[in-house]
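Researcher: Re-running this chain for the archive, since the previous output was lost when a drive failed. Same request as before.
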Amino acid sequence: MRVNSGPPTIWLPASAASWAQQPGQQFVANLQLESFAYPSVNIVAKIPGTDPQLRSQNVLFSTHQDHDGVREAVAGDSIYNGADDNATGCAALLAIMRAFKQKPGRRTALFVYHGAEERGLLGSRYYSEHPTVPQSSIVAVLNAEMMGRNSPDSAALLGRQRPHRNSLDLVKTALAANQAGPKFKLDTLWDRADHPEGWYFRSDHLPYARLGIPSVMYTSLLHVDYHTPRDEPKRIDYPKLTNMTRWMYLTGWAVANRTAPPARDPGFKLER
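Model: Regenerated structure tokens:
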């Protein structure tokens, strides 16, 4: 696949506004452009549910299995490992898959390792429009994105608050699972519509949320090693990753076994 990016966007601090608005000012920057051409796939697995009435419905556990590969060297290292982004999410889904294999839920557990997330959510955009199950059968999407860094007692649930939230019911289930499990202190700033990172719009739950499917994202947020060669396995907080995985599993288990699927918020309209 080939993806061409648009022109670069330059962010300036508010303190530079008066300078930038003066006539005759010039801005000079050295830009390095990169192009990518590589095959990508979505990897899909499922564990059928046990309930004859509910097994046709799917709880989708989502992550992405790509990173940036070999790029320009930083301090002599050109291998962008992607340990947190997103080997942590991949490991989490493997553990959740094993748990559902040992004890299936009433609904079917669907696991999707999306490809080409780093190139613009290409895998999840494709799969959400061409799923291997009926699109209407997907009752919830739980997305794992970077779950092994930062403070051991804190995390974030994106899609928790408006305008990003499309299912208060699913959010309440996830919050209850956190209290029953790891009891993370949950950051709310990164889910705000005015957060400068726009983190909610940069992972694989987004195409599903745009379709109105109840969707949330589990993350321990960005860090200084994000998209650098320093994102290595030795920097992962493995006990925290275990707790993040447990939180995500408990949410999915609850959704898989309740009688009614998560209710959708009426009038949901995703705006940025």
